[in-house]
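Worked example 3 (structure in, sequence out).
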């Protein structure tokens, strides 16, 4: 009976995934029946709710990637440094305090992060750089980085703790310092797990919705200035889904085209992560 229950649970997961993909694919094909895929990929104008409609995904894609890149610059180095400290330097009593705090930080609702970005981080940035827009990519990116930081730190620490103690002892016996052991022995040995944590965090950043919807604004434009307002793919989906568009319209179908683009992007990241993890995986 137990194997049957477990099989049913696995089957439900697979069927749910297949259903999501089929819905996305069906609606996306219907969308491209009315909109040129060339325009969708190459145009830099995204105005689905205007009288003069344009469906170029580039503004949303640029906004999404800007948020993700800046968030990764915040989360990845700090998260990795935190993981190195917890696994190689921190006493057990410190680890028992810091690890639960990181887990609590990971459990904060994203809408709380969004208002934290809007009401605290944005005024702080504007006090330093007055020309910053009220809704801007920089504050949203910083807070998205803070949100994914616990994921990077926790998963990377778990990967480092899985490295056998004998590798550390061998390096110490050869005269290496603790920092050299951490950087040249433990991190390379745990590289597959660390990369997996990085990609998982980046996928989380790409799919983040509430923080960017609240703090980054809703101006779909191709800009590389993080002090300006941008719109991400997830923020567009939220804005267009508020009930102002007619179901079955081209505006409604554009949600699924954007969703499919987001799905392909995150799937590509996960495939790259699996390849790198297999390539650098160490067997002990």
């Amino acid at each position: 009976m137990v194997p049957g229950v477990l099989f049913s649970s696995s089957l439900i997961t697979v069927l749910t995934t297949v259903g999501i993909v089929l819905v996305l694919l069906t609606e996306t094909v219907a969308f491209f029946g009315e909109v040129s895929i060339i325009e969708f990929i190459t145009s830099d104008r995204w105005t689905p709710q205007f009288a003069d409609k344009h469906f170029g995904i580039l503004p949303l894609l640029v906004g999404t990637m800007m948020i993700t890149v800046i968030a990764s610059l915040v989360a990845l180095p700090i998260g990795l440094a935190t993981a190195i400290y917890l696994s190689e330097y921190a006493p057990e009593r410190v680890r028992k305090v810091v690890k639960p705090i990181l887990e609590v930080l990971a459990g904060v609702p994203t809408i709380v992060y969004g208002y934290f970005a809007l009401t605290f981080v944005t005024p702080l940035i504007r006090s330093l750089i007055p020309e910053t827009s009220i809704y801007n990519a920089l504050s949203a990116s910083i807070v998205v980085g803070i949100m994914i930081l616990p994921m990077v730190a926790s998963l990377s620490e778990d990967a480092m703790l899985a490295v056998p103690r004998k590798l550390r002892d061998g390096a110490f016996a050869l005269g290496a310092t603790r920092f050299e052991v951490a950087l040249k022995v433990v991190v390379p040995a745990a590289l597959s797990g660390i990369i997996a944590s990085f990609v998982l965090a980046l996928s989380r950043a790409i799919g983040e919705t509430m923080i960017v919807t609240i703090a980054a604004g809703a101006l779909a434009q191709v800009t590389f200035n993080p002090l300006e307002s941008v719109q991400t793919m997830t923020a567009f989906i939220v804005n267009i889904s508020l009930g102002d568009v007619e179901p079955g319209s081209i505006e409604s179908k554009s949600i699924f085209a954007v969703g499919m683009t987001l799905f392909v992007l995150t799937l590509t990241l996960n495939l790259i992560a699996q390849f790198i993890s297999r390539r650098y995986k160490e067997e002990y």
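Notes: Residues 38-280 form a domain with the MetI-like fold fold (CATH 1.10.3720.10). The chain has a mean pLDDT of 87.
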